[in-house]
């Protein structure tokens, strides 16, 4: 069936109905809108907030500029206020942040203004009939028929009910299903619609109002206000109250004007701001409505050739403004699936089965998101009404201290996961967070698998404790270390172990112990021992670089991985094989959000200072460890000086950055373009990865051609719990286990990061494919270089994600 031969009958000239009509018109699909009221855009006292997820689709339909012009003032500032109208939380750069992230502002204007914009944009106005209220809808084998209360009959390919919460089309759909397939509709749905809150919503004009470009939420016990400014001298307001209990279906009341005025008088002296009371708004109202607020997503949105969208399918509490925006989204989803099916179908008529498939795909695509947003709206309304002692406590003592980032991070799921029209060009709007349909796939959560990962890292830490500390106790290593410290003797250096390095007794005691451990490994006459340590430290270099980068990455600030110096001290004192699994588990927790990789903050402002810090703080001290000192005491000083190397890398980075910032502040030209860090990050990954790869290849090739040393001797301990003869042997076993454990942990961690890029929609490399790459990398260039290569690729993927900037 061609688009010209398909005809969609839309019941309701609502936002959902007219949006769908415009979408169909732009794709050459015939339509007919039947509107019950005489006027297409009557003033019914309602305002609407249009949010980025709705504005994006309206932009595709060519309505965006007109919406901005009509609204006049985007929401610039958001305030949470107490019962006296005093703000206790504010978001004063709201418009800047939301527009920068998602490309669109939030605007408020009359609902009828948006309906008028949609109506004006539709070219075929003769296909929009007013004063035609739907009476019956009938499914037929090849078409659907609608009879209006005026007695007229219209036929089309299918019928879409966009006629609101009291949808006549939904009722007709249920009756049709009851006759043909009684199991299709759950009988309980007739009275399932719940309502906990009721609301007077209105528009005031000409009197005192709120500051332009602001939106205030006023918290009270069991009632609340939402008061956004409007165009001109208009102010919109919502007085929401808890009805006392949740009512269902036929229990939900319909309020009279007298009941509205009575409720208004009860709240006459409520403060909106310290200088504005509710009575000031109500006295200057030009329209208002008192109504219950049902909140629900119906289980079935369609039957055969009948479909419901908008409030007829999913009804929102108005606080978050998602009702109208999600009505537009569902219309877009239906249009996408219809146009796709028509293209595949060619010139054949759409059968009832094919139409039902279009409807089913639409509901499946939209249902979970609708339910999630409905629940979020309800939860926020409960909070603002302070419904329980706990919520009251949270509202008063927790909400005032909530960082803006908590709200902005939630925007990702709210706005970025919204729909768009597949068949129309994407608008060219700058935004830093990609919409999910701009990605390779919609992001998905790690799910319960993450608990297995936590278990694996915890198990590795337990194994590390056994192999590093319990084994050292059993095989005698720690006894030999204590003896060396007590006797001030290491191997052939009887009586020559230094005890003073810094003059601070507690620090010198730790350094003396560490020197007694490292010295035998470096000076051992058995080549495999210093060779293993050199390989180990070169493999650590990329990891230390990555830990430092992640510590200075903006989105990780104030997180558990934001202090690489502390982690460095921990793994120097307790072994990186024990600490690394704990670090990786912390990294899992920090990145737990589904869209974590999409959030702003990829940048590493200190990136240009990390490589110099690595060279000065780690590479140079490590080279000195293997320098052939003639004086044993000099080597001990070098070993002691090397111990804080991982922590020094972070400290040097901090110092270099501070000095650079001081220089910048004294210079006129301190502007830095976004993305400058990529050049320096590439250099870090390339340099550290190359060093690690060169050492890996040298050791592997050397062992292959050598008759004295093998890879097994270097990397695999024979028996970790067997008694050792010398301290050098015990330390060798310790370092072998330490290296194997950190290698195992970093392998799993690397695989998780490959999987994260795939599930976030940033990469097409599945973890199974990544597994092959990792195995090859660990074998041919070594674990350290593989980690550097992975992070190099990860950085590139994150920096070139499809978000216009």
Give an account of the 3D structure:
The strands form six sheets. A seven-stranded mixed β-sheet has the order 5-4-13-14-15-12-18, sandwiched between helices. Strands 7-2-1-11-21-20 form a six-stranded mixed β-sheet, sandwiched between helices. A three-stranded antiparallel β-sheet has the order 8-9-10. It is built from 26 helices and 22 strands. Helix 19 runs parallel beside helix 22 (677-705). It is α+β, with helices and mostly antiparallel strands. Strand 9 and strand 10 form a beta hairpin. It has two domains: 3-438, FAD/NAD(P)-binding domain (3-Layer(bba) Sandwich), CATH 3.50.50.60; 449-664 and 673-799, no CATH class. The chain is elongated. The longest helix has 33 residues, at 352-384.
Strands, helices and their partners?
Blueprint: E1 7-11, H1 15-26, E2 30-34, E3 47-50, H2 52-60, H3 64-71, E4 77-81, E5 87-91, H4 94-102, E6 107-110, H5 111-121, E7 128-129, E8 134-139, E9 144-148, E10 153-156, E11 158-161, H6 168-180, E12 194-205, E13 214-219, E14 223-228, E15 234-248, H7 257-266, E16 271-273, E17 276-277, H8 278-283, E18 285-294, E19 296-297, E20 302-303, E21 306-308, E22 314-315, H9 322-345, H10 352-384, H11 389-397, H12 404-416, H13 449-474, H14 477-487, H15 505-523, H16 528-552, H17 564-574, H18 576-590, H19 607-625, H20 632-642, H21 645-665, H22 677-705, H23 711-715, H24 727-759, H25 767-780, H26 782-799
Parallel strand pairs: 1-2, 1-11, 2-7, 4-13, 11-21
Antiparallel strand pairs: 3-6, 4-5, 8-9, 9-10, 12-15, 12-18, 13-14, 14-15, 16-17, 19-22, 20-21
Helix pairs in contact: 1-5, 1-9, 2-9, 9-10, 13-18, 13-24, 14-15, 14-24, 15-20, 15-24, 16-19, 16-22, 16-24, 16-26, 17-18, 17-21, 18-24, 19-20, 19-21, 19-22, 22-26, 24-25, 24-26, 25-26
């Amino acid at each position: 069936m061609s688009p010209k031969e398909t005809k969609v009958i839309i019941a309701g000239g609502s936002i959902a109905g007219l949006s769908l009509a415009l979408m169909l018109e732009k794709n050459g699909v015939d339509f007919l809108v039947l509107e019950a009221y005489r006027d297409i855009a009557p003033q019914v006292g309602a305002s609407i907030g249009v949010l980025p997820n709705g504005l994006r689709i309206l932009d595709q339909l060519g309505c965006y500029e007109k919406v901005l012009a009509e609204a006049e003032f985007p929401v610039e500032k958001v305030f949470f206020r107490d019962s006296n109208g005093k703000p206790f939380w504010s978001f004063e750069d709201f418009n800047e942040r939301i527009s920068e992230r998602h490309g669109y502002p939030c605007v408020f204007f009359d609902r009828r203004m948006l309906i008028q914009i949609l109506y004006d944009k539709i070219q075929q106005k003769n296909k929009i009939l007013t004063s035609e209220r739907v009476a019956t809808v009938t499914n037929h084998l090849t078409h659907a028929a609608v009879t209006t209360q005026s007695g007229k009959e219209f036929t089309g390919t299918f019928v879409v009910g966009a006629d609101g919460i009291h949808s006549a089309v939904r009722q007709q759909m249920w009756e049709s299903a009851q006759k043909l397939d009684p199991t299709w509709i759950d009988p309980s749905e007739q009275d399932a619609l719940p309502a906990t809150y009721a609301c007077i919503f209105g528009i005031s004009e000409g009197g005192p109002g709120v500051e332009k470009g602001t939106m205030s939420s006023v918290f009270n016990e069991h009632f609340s206000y939402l008061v956004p400014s409007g165009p001109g001298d208009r102010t919109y307001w919502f007085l929401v109250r808890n009805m006392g209990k949740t009512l269902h279906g036929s229990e939900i009341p319909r309020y009279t004007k007298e009941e509205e005025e009575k409720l208004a008088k009860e709240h006459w002296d409520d403060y909106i701001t310290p200088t504005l009371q509710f009575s000031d708004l109500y006295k200057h109202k030009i329209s208002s409505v008192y109504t219950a607020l049902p909140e629900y997503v119906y289980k079935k949105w369609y039957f055969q050739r009948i479909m419901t969208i908008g409030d007829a399918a999913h009804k929102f509490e108005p606080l978050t403004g998602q009702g109208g925006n999600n009505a537009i989204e569902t219309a877009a989803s239906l249009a996408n699936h219809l146009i796709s099916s028509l293209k595949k179908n060619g010139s054949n008529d759409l059968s009832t089965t094919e139409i039902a498939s279009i409807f089913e795909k639409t509901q499946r695509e939209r249902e979970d998101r609708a339910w999630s947003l409905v629940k979020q709206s309800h939860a926020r309304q409960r909070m603002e009404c302070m419904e329980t002692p706990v919520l009251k406590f949270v509202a008063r003592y927790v909400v005032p201290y909530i960082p803006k980032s908590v709200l902005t991070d939630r925007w990702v799921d709210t706005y970025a996961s919204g729909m768009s029209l597949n068949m129309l060009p994407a608008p060219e709007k700058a935004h830093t967070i990609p919409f999910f349909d701009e990605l390779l796939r919609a992001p998905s959560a790690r799910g319960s698998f993450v608990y297995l990962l936590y278990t694996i890292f915890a198990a590795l830490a337990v194994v590390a404790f056994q192999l590093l500390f319990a084994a050292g106790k059993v095989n005698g290593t720690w006894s030999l270390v204590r003896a060396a410290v007590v006797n001030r003797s290491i191997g052939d250096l009887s009586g020559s172990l230094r005890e003073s390095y810094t003059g601070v007794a507690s620090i010198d005691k730790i350094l003396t112990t560490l020197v007694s451990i490292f010295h035998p490994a470096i000076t051992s006459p058995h080549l495999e021992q210093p060779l293993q340590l050199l390989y180990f430290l070169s493999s650590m270099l990329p990891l230390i670089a990555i830990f430092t980068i992640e510590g200075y990455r903006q989105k990780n600030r104030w997180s558990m991985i934001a202090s690489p110096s502390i982690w460095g001290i921990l793994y120097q004192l307790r072994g990186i094989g024990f600490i690394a699994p704990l670090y990786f588990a912390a990294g899992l927790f920090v990145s737990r959000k589904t869209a974590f990789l999409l959030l702003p903050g990829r940048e590493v402002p200190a990136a240009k200072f990390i490589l110099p810090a690595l060279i000065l703080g780690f590479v140079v001290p490590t080279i000195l460890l293997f320098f052939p000192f003639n004086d044993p005491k000099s080597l001990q000083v070098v070993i002691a000086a090397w111990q804080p190397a991982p922590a020094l890398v972070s400290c040097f980075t901090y110092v270099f950055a501070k000095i650079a910032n001081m220089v910048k502040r004294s210079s006129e030209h301190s502007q830095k373009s976004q993305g400058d860090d990529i050049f320096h990050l590439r250099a870090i990954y390339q340099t550290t990865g190359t060093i690690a790869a060169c050492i890996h290849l040298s050791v592997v090739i050397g062992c292959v051609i050598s008759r004295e040393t093998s890879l097994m001797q270097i990397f695999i301990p024979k028996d970790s719990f067997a008694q050792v003869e010398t301290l050098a042997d015990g330390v060798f076993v310790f370092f072998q286990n330490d290296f194997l454990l950190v290698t195992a942990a970093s392998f799993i961690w690397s695989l998780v990061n490959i999987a994260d890029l795939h599930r976030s929609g940033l990469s097409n490399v599945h973890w199974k494919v990544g597994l092959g790459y990792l195995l090859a990398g660990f074998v041919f260039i070594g674990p350290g270089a593989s980690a550097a290569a992975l992070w190099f690729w990860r950085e590139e993927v994150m920096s070139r994600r499809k978000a216009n900037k």
